[in-house]
Amino acid sequence: MSNEKLIEKMNDALALELRAINMYAHYSATVMGINRMQLAPYFSKEVSESISHADIVRRGIVKLGGIPVTERNNKDIVHTTDYQVMLNEAYDTEKFAANAYTAVMDLLKDVGDRDLFDAVEQICMMELRALEELRLLTA
Ligand SMILES: [Fe+2]
Ligand SMILES: [Fe+2]
């Protein structure tokens, strides 16, 4: 099997991470009021996590012989002063990420690269955990 489809799916995930970096950095800077105390560090942590996920995926794409994308996923980043809207946007972002990594895992399991499979599986679990956390935060 050629790695073309897998590289495409990994690039989808990378573009989503690049978008997540921007979105979370924006919300960390712009969240106001008493919620800023907890949400600014929370969003900043998501920035760092997304940077590290992007790095792992980028290197994986290169390992597979592909060219990593440099543009973020083009879905709008909603500017808002309402932290509930921020959390809803975060929830959607994590859902897209979880779906993207599930698609990558489906293709990766046939490639036989155990190291890359484990790395992506860990990222996928982190997205699912973030999704569950945001489900509770927005409940
Ligand atoms: Fe991520
Ligand atoms: Fe995430």
CATH overall fold name = Ferritin
Bound small molecules, by name, code or SMILES, are: fe (ii) ion
User: Structural class of the helices, strands and pairings?
Assistant: mainly alpha
Strand content: under 5%
Biggest sheet statistics: none
Q: What count of domains describes the coordinates? A: 1
Number of strand segments = 0
CATH H-level homologous superfamily name: Ferritin, core subunit, four-helix bundle
Which spans of ≥5 residues are poorly predicted at pLDDT below 50?
none
Order of helices and strands: HHHH
Radius of gyration, rounded? 15 Å
Write a brief caption for the model:
Helices cover 76% and strands 0% of the residues.
How would you characterize the overall build of this protein?
By secondary structure, this protein is an all-alpha fold. The protein has a single domain (4-137), classed as Up-down Bundle (Ferritin). It has 4 helices and no strands. Helix 3 (83-108) runs antiparallel to helix 4. The relative contact order is 0.17. The mean pLDDT is 96. One fe (ii) ion (FE2) binds next to helix 2 and helix 4.
Question: How is this fold's topology laid out?
Answer:
Elements: H1 4-30, H2 36-63, H3 83-108, H4 114-137
Helix pairs in contact: 1-2, 1-3, 2-4, 3-4
The structure holds fe (ii) ion (2 copies).
List keywords for this structure.
139 residues, 4 helices, binds fe (ii) ion, Ferritin, mainly alpha, single chain
